[in-house]
Design a protein that fits this description.
CATH class of the largest domain: Mainly Beta
Number of helices: 10
Helix content: 25-40%
CATH superfamily of the largest domain: TolB, C-terminal domain
Strand content: 25-35%
InterPro entries: 6-blade_b-propeller_TolB-like, TRIM45/56/19-like, Znf-RING_euk, Znf_B-box, Znf_RING, Znf_RING/FYVE/PHD, Znf_RING_CS
Strand order of the largest sheet: 13-35-34-33
Largest sheet: 4 strands, antiparallel
Keywords: Metal-binding, Phosphoprotein, Zinc, Zinc-finger
Radius of gyration: 35 Å
Number of strands: 35
CATH topology of the largest domain: Neuraminidase
GO molecular function, one term: ubiquitin protein ligase activity
CATH architecture of the largest domain: 6 Propeller
Low-confidence stretches: none
Number of domains: 3
Structural class: alpha+beta
Pfam family, one: zf-RING_UBOX
Shape: elongated
Distance between the termini: 79 Å
Length: 610
């Protein structure tokens, strides 16, 4: 009976949140008690709020200046915990009244044992595999004793059942007497514990995924900040160089210009910092509450602990409902900073350094004239231009040609699989896979030959399915291939139009048919359509999950770029009637770098808009 009473007392000394013995217990206004560290974590989840909601009864307690340490301490609990920790444990196996002091605790038997009983216990064949803990490790806090739930009404009975309706554990006698009415659902305690741990693991997994999602968002913001910082540094360097070549009287003008650069870029940095701070606060919120809830070593057993964990689980589920971050906002903010540049005054009578301007455009001549056949952004944030005369050329967001590979392969389409393999469609409609080191892989695909269809294009979706578009007067369809090779796993027909380009966008495909953009589902049904008669249209999926469309007036050599929703509704104009060098043939591709720059490629040149 005494031992059962000790178990009840020890159980009452456990914090309902962390399920460990109280550490620095603090009392809320509702009289419920928790560890100070647990209350600090719960308060941090509420941000700047000074009201703390009790996880058990949900009553609110005001925390002045968010200092949990100022809450009243439970001195009686602290004293009782110290007394319990200082008490010697006696052997529970010896029958004499004068029991010797215990030296070990058997987790499987649930008993403290003296040295004599321990020696006998270790010789029993059935008990060799039992987990035995030394008292020195228990008292030092290195290990914790597994507690056995005993019924408060029937101390000799184990709580082997759980009532889902009452949300409490019960012994068999309590089940018979109190939990047989309609609505009470009684299951084995072990079954509940297993189910509870599975649901906790599911919540933990979802929290990890959501946290990873926001971490990617934070990383993206850092990337945008870095680009803006590079622009600020470049502008400052250009200004300094011009200043060094000028006279001392230009010092004042120099400082004015640098201040203007800072004024245009620091506001963007501030916006990005605020977005980053908000995302990091959500990551912290998810981390703290998920770690508090997902205690893998213990399962809440009494009503307070169960109520606390039910509340915390609900809080975590509410946090998981927050929408995934919108990359469009930091991208739009960074565009304002990245568009800043310094234009130096050259050959002017007036002594001046120059001016700060916006809207930088890079104009890069392709190495091979009239050769561009396709363009696609790479997984590492660069741009790949495929050439019909042979080779894939890789350009940075600054317009630098960084490498050329597969020079002997006449390129018709390029794609990238999630495992960093290249997908190449050549001039004979053959699909070939290559590694990052450009090693050709032995995977064969059964495509239509060049004789069956002269015109083809290729794209890869997020599930690594490969789409090959065929279009001429006798063949009009899209074949879908697995990266494992072989025959097409299915075909998508399209009637009434012949697409010149094809791109994957989530659950849809985007096709361009000279003067018309169409969104079709993966069964070939047209969902949305946009037509601009007389103009060449090219398309790209932007970072903000919208669609960028370039309108090219070929004869006038003018290009405009607009942003549309996924329903092809106009959002904004980005570029209006920009002069380009007129190419020999009207073939254009539009893509977007991961860093936000927009790339328009003609058969001869690559234009990069910031």
């Amino acid at each position: 009976m005494a031992e059962a009473l000790k178990n009840v007392i020890a159980h009452s000394l456990e914090c309902p949140v962390c399920l460990d013995t109280f550490t620095d217990p603090k009392i809320l206004s509702c009289s419920h008690t928790y560890c100070k560290a647990c209350l600090d974590n719960l308060l941090e989840c509420h941000g700047s709020d000074q009201m703390l909601r009790c996880p058990v009864c949900r009553a609110e307690t005001q925390i002045p200046n968010q200092e949990v340490s100022k809450l009243p301490a439970s001195l009686a609990l602290k004293s009782l915990i110290e007394d319990m920790n200082n008490q010697h444990k006696f052997c529970m196996n010896c029958k004499s009244d004068d029991k010797p002091q215990a030296v070990v605790y058997c987790q499987d038997c649930g008993k403290y044992l003296c040295i004599t009983c321990h020696n006998a216990h270790s010789l029993w064949q059935d008990f060799i595999s039992h987990e035995v803990l030394a008292m020195s490790e228990i008292e030092s806090g290195k290990v914790s004793v597994r507690r056995y739930r005993k019924c408060k009404k029937h101390p000799k009975e184990d709580e082997e059942c759980f009532c889902s309706e009452c949300r409490r554990f019960a012994c068999f006698r309590c089940v018979v007497m109190e939990h047989t009415k309609e609505g009470h659902q009684v299951i084995e305690a072990a079954v509940y514990e297993s189910s509870h741990m599975k649901s906790i693991e599911d919540l933990k997994s979802k929290a990890d995924n959501k946290r990873s999602c926001f971490q990617k968002y934070v990383d993206f913001i850092d990337e945008q900040k870095e680009h803006v910082s590079k622009v600020q540094k470049q502008c400052t360097d250009d200004i300094n160089k011009a200043f060094e070549e000028s006279v001392r009287q230009l010092t004042k003008k120099k400082e004015i210009l640098i201040g203007e650069v800072k004024g245009r870029t620091e506001g963007v940095q501030k916006e990005l910092n605020e977005m980053k701070k908000s995302a990091e606060e959500h990551i912290t919120h998810l981390t703290i509450i998920a770690d508090v809830v997902t205690n893998k070593t213990k399962v809440p057993s009494d009503m307070d602990a169960l109520a606390a964990h039910d509340t915390l689980c609900q809080d975590l589920q509410e946090a998981l409902k927050q929408e995934d971050p919108d990359y469009k906002q930091p991208m739009q903010s960074s565009k304002k900073g990245k568009s800043v540049s310094f234009k130096r005054n050259v050959g002017m009578d007036e002594i001046a350094l120059g001016t700060i301007v916006n809207g930088v455009v890079k104009n890069i001549a392709l190495p091979t004239k009239n050769s561009m056949s396709t363009m696609v952004s790479t997984p590492d944030g660069r741009m790949a231009v495929g050439c019909s005369t042979g080779g894939v050329e890789i350009f940075s967001a600054d317009g630098e040609l960084q490498q050329t590979f597969l020079k002997r392969v006449k390129i018709r389409g390029v794609g990238f699989l999630s495992n960093d393999r290249y997908v190449i469609l050549d001039d004979f409609n053959n699909i070939t896979l290559y590694t990052l080191e450009y090693t050709k892989l032995n995977v064969k695909f059964k495509t239509l030959s060049h004789d069956e269809c002269e015109f083809a294009d290729l794209t890869v979706d997020s599930n690594d399915q490969i789409y090959v578009r065929y279009s001429n007067w006798k063949v009009q369809k899209i074949q879908v291939f697995s990266p494992a090779g072989g025959k097409a796993i299915r075909e998508i027909p399209y009637d009434g139009f012949i697409p010149g380009q094809i791109t994957s966008n989530n659950d849809h495909l985007i096709t361009a048919s000279w003067d018309t953009i169409r969104l079709i589902d993966k069964q070939g049904v047209v969902k949305y359509e946009l037509a601009k008669l007389g103009d060449n249209l090219s398309h790209a999926v932007s970072q903000g999950n919208t669609i960028l469309i370039a309108t090219v007036k070929h004869d006038a050599a003018l290009v405009s770029i607009d942003e549309y929703t996924n329903e092809l509704k106009h959002v904004q104009s980005i570029v209006i009637d920009y002069d380009i060098e007129k190419p020999e043939r009207g073939w254009y591709y539009l893509q977007q770098y991961r860093s936000g720059e927009i790339a328009l490629c003609t058969p001869d040149r690559l234009y990069i808009f910031h």
